[in-house]
Amino acid sequence: MDIVETSPDDKGGLAVIIVTYNSAEALPALLDSLADGLRGIERFEVVVADNNSHDGSSDLAAAHPIGARVIRMGWNAGYAAAINAAAATVRQGVSLLVLNPDLRLYPDAAKPLVEHLASPGVGVVVPINYKQDGSVDPTLRREPSVLSAWAEAVLGGSLAARVGWGEIVDLSARYDSCGAAEWATGSALLISAQARRIVGEWDESFFLYSEEVDYQRRVREAGLSIIFEPQAKVMHAGGGSGSSPRLFALMTANRIRYYRRHHGRLKAALFASGIAFGQMLRCWRGSTHRAGLGGALRPSGALSQFRATARA
């Protein structure tokens, strides 16, 4: 494994990257939490990449006393593209803490994450997420598989997680201790400078959803580890992929696009049929699952339609 060397002046430090899109309601709480959340981190900067918000998100970030540097993308370029744009402005030897705008850091949240970077071979470190009611948000995941697709289709996501067949790792004891993970949802990820150099940029072809699955797979394939650290705590207000049919269709489509990229035709067909079957069974619940079925049947069409809308 080749590791690109940097000059001594280029090493160390932390850059907090936040991608915003009409995030003015949630963003102030996150920015307010950074001072205490980053306590113990000697050198840090905050970079906000704004995907052409229409609610003043970028102005709000620029005016906040945390001193964020704001990158105005000029259009809704997608989550991965915004991360890449922000990362391109940060020195190569600096680690990245990527945060969703609807997060809040608990006091001293970042330090336990950063401490893992002293160990060789660490690519990504993730904190424990809490919901607004104080319960643990199960953000750890298994690599997608035909079994997980069909288990979630037949049993539902919650039951499949409880029996250990779904993508979601829903074993409460697992969230009590530090350990290796396959991947975690992208609400809060500390990416080491080593991973940045070896793995490279995020894949912008996903636009939104599954880009973190793809990135963390490439981290593992590079021989780097993904570590879960429950001493680092964040609160996640929640995204809302299920509240918007368009977003749910895109999420469903990108799950299939990701799986097809890494598996043969037969396994990819079995995976896609499991996803489609699960959405078909739940179409009676409303427009969200009907949109999910459309995304499962025509993954490329769902992505193209979403990109066209984003550019409008």
The backbone outline, from C-alpha atoms, is: globular
Mean pLDDT: 92
Order of helices and strands: EHEHEHEEHEEEHHEEEHHEHHHH
Helix content: 40-55%
**Count of alpha/pi helices:** 12
Radius of gyration: 19 Å
Would you count the extended β strands for me?
Answer: 12
Query: Could you give the distance between the termini?
Result: 43 Å
Poorly predicted parts? 1-10
Broad structural category: alpha/beta
Content of β-strand: 15-25%
| Multimerization status | single chain
Question: What's the story with the biggest beta sheet?
Answer: 10 strands, mixed
Commentary on this structure:
This protein is α/β, with parallel strands linked by helices and 312 residues long. Helices cover 40% and strands 21% of the residues. The chain has helices at 27-37, 57-63, 79-87, 110-115, 146-155, 157-162, 193-199, 211-221, 245-262, 265-281, 287-297, 299-311, and strands at 11-20, 44-50, 69-72, 93-99, 103-105, 122-130, 136-137, 140-141, 179-180, 183-184, 188-191, 225-236. The strands form 2 sheets. Strands 1, 2, 3, 4, 5, 6, 7, 9, 11 and 12 form a 10-stranded mixed beta sheet that branches. Helix 9 runs antiparallel to helix 10 (265-281), helix 9 (245-262) packs across helix 12 (299-311) and helix 11 (287-297) packs across helix 12 (299-311). The N and C termini lie far apart (43 Å).
